[in-house]
Specification:
This protein is an alpha/beta fold and 1199 residues long. The protein has 41 helices and 28 strands. Helix 27 packs across helix 28. The chain is globular, with a radius of gyration of 33 Å.
């Protein structure tokens, strides 16, 4: 079992239950007994029979057990206590269920076919004198355990792990009923006449699962009233509490072996009212016309509710944890490595049973909270609940104590934040907060609060505050609105940890009063007023959660949980005004403020929390107020809170986005959303150098770093996305833990190399000191931001478009054909393909086209700079961003200390490989196959798969078209066989070409602003003139398809590397995947050879906004070898400055696509975060399956 201080409590609850309760039967015998008398002698006789059954009969039979229940009224009489139950639904007149009562229920269970009948025969004669009637029902399943004519797997959603058993099935109390339960029985008859008239698909939709156990998405238009949907209910805390179902079929219908007469349904729970709620939900508002479609085909014949006493009450054997608890074989699928879990059921069972091979499984408290989180995720298979739109500020004035909406947009935003945090999304009295789970709490939580279900892909809801005319004006200007805050900025949580909320509000109010006295200080005053109102909203949030914790303390009967909630209540009350004084205080303050930012639509990251938290933990360890184990538990609880929201069923994804939501670079519009469903923008950055100015850096990894790495390995959530900043000489324990975490399959941590990135940031601008270059954190995706001091904007530089334009006279050819002829005209008309005589000529033209696109990106960024100001300011975020308070300006008004601009280049690998292919296919005398004009025609015709006019004259007939198509397809085969960049092909020529292109690309990105063209310079000067002489854009070239590798590829025609038109491109700076139109058969490469392509200054230093390389590794990648590779990367002997590693086999991906529920913990790297693979849309899944696999070197590691 789990080795921690809560083990005794868990074992006590399990051990108090009747030993037979968890047994999963294949055969059984149900006895419903109606007694002659209800006197004490009868009680004594019944109990003696049960004790004899336990001690003398059951031990004679292998894999056999029993459970016994009593009429609650009868057992209450015998034990002189009142056992209250609800029977309103069961006693109703709907005719679908029958309450035939009874005094005693004995359920004999076994895995052996003849055992139940033999067991009953041994005690039935002793029982008969006490009973006036005994209803006996022998039962049994087929050997494959299937029911309903052998079609369905049963019981697969049962809570079999010890945590779920203890919390959902067994009573946990200080009394004699500790370990007791309640049962519901109902003998159903099948209507085979109707069942046989249904198609297989129709039957599946009745149940909600397919014959292999795969869940059917419960869309309202398809199967909203399937049985598993109607049997799914939530409690007042919006948790689904489970039943343990142990039903068995009985008899044969009309003598047919393939047709059971019916099903004896048996279910157990620790709350009898749960049965009534489920039955009520199955029936719906009109019980005569039930909503649960299964009730159209079954009819209840009899049954009742039962009290199932604890083993102690009966004096019989209790459950032996580990021996009597077991895992359902449906979920028992396991990886080749010890760290990776495929599904939540297997995870909970193995962790709670102490079967985690490393031995450092999470605490029982943590597993309990994870169990609730997993149930919350599974709700997504049953129902899709949409976040409601929020009222306009003018309708919320009473909440913010105002009589009218202020004229100042800044002040309006502050009041919108106040209304959101004070009431709408955190008050226990708010219907919205209640119905969206934003005030959900568990008495076991060490860290409390809730993140809203706002993601980059799905969008968010905020309080509007613009009037209709202002909304129209903002749309016409730049397509922005109140939803436009981009986030992707790293707050300075150190500020609020140092000062506390109260002191910061006092400072804002003082600054506002001083500014108001100045002749030109109105805007500054408004900024501080808005910041103050926003922070007052945060104060109200803390007060609300103190109230919520206080109620949770009064609701729980567990003394430890009660003490915990009272401690939380006290903490939340203190932190509403005061700075934190302990490690747990600091963790709670950071998480709560982070939650508030997300609640008001500012989707931001955490930053370097190990650097902030370590002084608190160090102090607490020294004074003995905390242990390392307790600190780990706090961090684990933080991880769960960050990751408790997850969308597992893409069928229920609701799109909240508007034209302005989370805009990019000050302009609204659309960007690829489907890949960002679970992008919560919750990055945690740990490790790295300390922010010192000395030439020799100082490593900053500490115990909190290690705690975060362990949490990432052991807590299988997709958020936070953990980034580890590695560096030369980093202690081995951090690198070993990082490698183990990567093998756990969450693609955590992302690995940064400080010695390269810090140098790149330092060289990016004279404003960036050594100390600042060493103080970066991931912004929510990959991009390194100067922590707590940077605003950020970016634009995409499309390398593939530049190459198409170089080949096609300034036009992209993805849309070439009868409408746009040679394609979409984009830039200057460069020479036609027939006039490009040498490969060097093509390279020159390519760079000219690329320079035009880079300049256009900057023109868009600089023209749009400042658009958020006056439409969607960010006073709350600005309050903890260096420079804003000092300058008195919101970050949208240029108030931040640093202003980072990243031209993010996309399609790098495809472009390099395409250039190389052109060289080999057209210009190399030893390998040339085609002229450049012919190749361009081939690409426009999509390698022969789309022979379009005017490039293929249809009047020549289909034979001519087919002949040309075959030639083009053969040419594609040649292109696909050519060496590929960064694939470990050891081809120096393609590697050198890649270096040339990257060096050129970086230089163009930097020079375009450093030495701007006459066309661009006025746009830069406009911004500099507005914000003063100290304002400067810091240019940090980067790479970033992120989740857009599918959407980005849609606009591009076929490329010379063999990629088909509109097919996905390579993610980020990764090597190209196998073609999407061919079967998934990714290449397996040497990881060291592949990374050698990134071993140059252009990549490692020049791409200072990071050059992410996303790699697949097999599940059996040895931990020792992976640790060596991570160490080599941290030491800089391996190329690149950022890598991510997704651990899963191709076969695992394929199975997860077929049965997503069975692989619901499978996660992969999707841009700057991890995504649940089953949630991904098919195009993304297919691309992931085709990414190259990288394996350990047997000889090349020199680390």
């Amino acid at each position: 079992m789990v080795n921690n201080r809560m083990d005794k409590g868990l074992s006590s609850t399990l051990g108090a239950a009747q030993r037979g309760l968890p047994l999963r039967p294949l055969f059984g015998h149900m006895l419903t007994i109606y007694l002659n008398n209800d006197d004490k002698d009868t009680q004594k006789g019944i109990v003696q029979i049960i004790q004899d059954l336990d001690k003398n009969i059951i031990p004679e039979f292998n894999d056999s057990a029993f459970i016994v229940g009593f009429s609650p009224a009868l057992w209450g009489k015998w034990t002189e206590r009142i056992i209250k139950i609800q029977t309103e639904v069961l006693d109703g007149d709907d005719d679908h269920f029958m309450n035939t009562l009874g005094d005693v229920m004995i359920y004999v269970k076994s895995r052996q076919k003849t055992a139940p009948e033999e067991i009953v025969a041994k005690f039935l004669r002793k029982l008969e004198p006490l009973a006036k009637r005994i209803d006996a029902t022998p039962m049994g399943k087929r050997p494959d355990a299937r029911v309903m004519g052998g079609r369905y797997v049963d019981h697969i959603s049962n809570p079999n792990d010890p945590i779920s058993l203890a919390e959902d099935i067994l009573v946990n109390s200080t009394g004699i009923d500790h370990g007791a339960s309640y049962a519901f029985t109902q003998k159903f008859v099948f209507d085979w006449l109707d069942l046989n008239s249904q198609s297989g698909d129709a039957l599946d939709s009745v149940i909600g699962r397919r014959p292999n156990g795969e869940i059917i998405s419960q869309q309202a238009s398809k199967a909203a009233n399937a049985h598993i949907h109607r049997a799914h209910t939530l409690d007042k805390n919006r948790d689904q509490r489970k039943l343990m179902r142990q039903a068995l079929p009985y008899h044969e219908s009309n003598g047919h072996a393939s047709r059971e007469e019916g099903m004896m349904f048996v279910a157990l729970a620790n709350d009898q009212g749960r049965f009534e709620e489920i039955l009520k939900n199955m029936l719906g508002p009109q019980p005569k016309r039930p909503l649960d479609r299964l009730l159209d085909f079954v009819q209840g014949q009899g049954g009742s509710y039962w009290y199932v006493p604890s083993a102690r009450e009966l004096g019989i054997s209790g459950v032996v944890p580990g021996d009597d608890t077991y895992e359902d074989p449906h979920w028992r699928i396991q990886s080749k490595n010890q760290y990776l879990f495929y599904n939540t059921q297997d995870y909970m069972h193995r962790m709670a049973e102490g079967k985690y091979e490393t031995g450092d499984q999470p605490s029982v408290r943590t597993l309990s909270l994870l169990s609730r989180t997993f149930n919350h995720w599974r709700d997504g298979w049953m129902k899709g609940e949409h976040f409601p739109r929020l009222k306009h500020l003018k309708d919320l004035l009473d909440i913010v104590d105002k009589k009218e909406v202020p004229k100042s947009i800044l002040e309006r935003k502050g009041l919108a934040n106040l209304a959101t945090l004070k009431f709408l999304l955190s008050s226990p009295d708010s219907d919205i907060a209640q119905n969206t789970g934003l005030v959900r709490i568990s008495a076991k939580e060490l860290i409390v609060g809730a993140i809203p279900d706002f993601t980059l892909g799905r969008g968010k809801e905020v309080v509007p505050y613009l009037d209709a005319d202002e909304t129209m004006a903002a749309w016409l200007k730049c397509q922005l609105n109140e939803w436009a805050a981009m986030g992707h900025i790293v707050p300075n949580f150190q500020t609020i940890v140092d000062k506390g909320l109260g002191a910061m509000i006092t400072d804002f109010d003082k600054r506002a009063a001083e500014a108001a006295k100045q002749e030109s200080g109105a805007e500054t005053a408004s900024f501080f007023i808005s910041a103050s109102d926003s922070f007052k909203g945060v104060q109200e949030y803390f007060k609300n959660w103190a109230t919520i914790a206080g109620k949770a303390a009064s609701d729980t009967t567990d003394l430890d949980d009660q003490a915990n909630m009272l401690d939380v209540k006290d903490r939340m009350q203190r932190l509403a005004t005061d700075a934190p004084t302990s490690f747990q205080d600091a963790v709670q303050l950071i998480f709560s403020f982070h939650s508030c930012l997300h609640l008001v639509g500012e989707l931001t990251a955490f930053g370097r929390i190990d650097q902030i938290l370590w002084p608190f933990l160090e102090k607490d360890l020294v004074d003995g107020s905390i242990t390392p184990e307790r600190a780990q538990e706090i961090v684990d609880c933080l991880w769960i809170k960050i990751g408790e929201n997850a969308f597992v069923n893409r069928a229920f994804i609701y799109d909240y986005r508007s034209y302005g939501t989370t805009s990019v670079s000050g302009l609204g519009g659309n960007f690829p959303q489907g890949g960002g469903i679970n992008q919560w923008v919750q990055q945690v950055t740990v490790g790295g150098y300390k922010p010192t100015d000395e030439e020799k850096p100082v490593g900053g990894a500490n115990l909190v770093t290690l705690l975060c790495l362990r949490a990432a390995r052991r807590i299988p959530v997709n958020a936070p996305s953990l980034s580890l900043r590695t560096y030369k000489g980093m202690p081995k324990e951090y690198l070993e833990e990082a490698a183990a975490s990567i093998l756990a399959g969450g693609a955590h941590p992302v690995l940064y190399n400080d010695d390269k990135l810090c140098e790149g940031l330092y060289r990016s601008s004279g404003l960036v000191t050594r100390a600042w270059s060493r103080d970066y954190a991931a912004d929510g995706c990959y991009e390194p931001m100067l922590t707590g001091a940077s605003e950020f904007t970016f634009g995409n530089v499309e390398l593939m478009a530049a190459l198409e334009q170089a080949l096609n006279q300034g036009s992209t050819y993805g849309a070439a054909g009868s409408v746009h002829l040679r394609g979409m005209k984009q830039t200057f008309r460069s020479p036609p393909a027939g006039q490009i005589k040498t490969f060097e000529d093509l390279k020159v033209i390519f760079l000219e086209q690329l320079n035009w696109l880079i300049t256009r990106v900057y023109a868009g960024v600089f023209t749009a700079y400042g658009n958020y100001e006056g439409i969607c300011p960010s006073p709350m975020l600005s309050g903890i961003l260096d420079g804003c308070v000092e300058s008195g300006r919101d970050l949208t008004a240029g108030g931040a200390k640093f202003h980072m601009v990243a031209p993010l280049c996309i399609g790098v690998a495809n472009c390099i490989d395409s250039l190389y292919a052109i060289k080999k296919l057209v210009y190399d005398t030893e390998s040339a196959r085609v002229t450049l004009p012919e190749l361009v025609r081939c690409l426009i015709c999509d390698w022969g798969y789309n022979m379009i006019e005017p490039y293929q004259d249809k009047s020549l007939g289909p034979a001519n078209a087919a002949a040309n198509a075959v030639r083009y397809q053969e040419l594609r085969d040649v292109a696909l066989e050519l060496p590929k960049w960064a694939s470990g092909d050891r081809d120096d020529e393609v590697k050198e070409l890649g270096k040339w292109m990257i060096d050129s690309m970086v230089q163009l990105c930097v020079d375009a602003v450093k030495n701007p063209s006459p066309a661009l310079k006025p746009l830069i000067d406009r911004v500099y003139d507005k914000y003063g002489p100290e304002f400067e854009f810091i240019i940090t070239p980067g790479i970033g398809t992120f989740e857009g590798f599918v959407g980005d590829g849609l606009a591009y025609g076929a490329s010379a590397d063999g990629r088909r038109s509109a097919m996905p491109i390579a993610s980020d700076m990764s090597p190209v995947p196998a073609p999407q139109d061919l079967p998934a058969a990714p290449a397996h490469r040497n990881i060291y050879d592949a990374m050698s392509s990134y071993k140059n200054d252009g990549v490692e230093i020049g791409i200072s906004n990071a050059a992410p390389v996303d790699m697949n590794i097999p599940e059996d990648f040895p931990l020792k070898d992976l640790t060596k590779f991570v160490t080599a990367f941290s030491e800089g002997t391996v190329g690149g400055n950022l890598i991510t590693l997704s651990c899963a086999d191709l076969d695992t991906y394929k199975k997860a696509s077929e049965d997503p529920e069975k692989y619901n913990l499978l996660r992969v790297r999707m841009g700057g975060w991890s995504e649940f693979y089953p949630t991904m849309f098919p195009d993304y899944q297919e691309q992931q399956q085709r990414r190259q696999y990288f394996e350990p070197s047997r000889e090349d590691c020199d680390c």
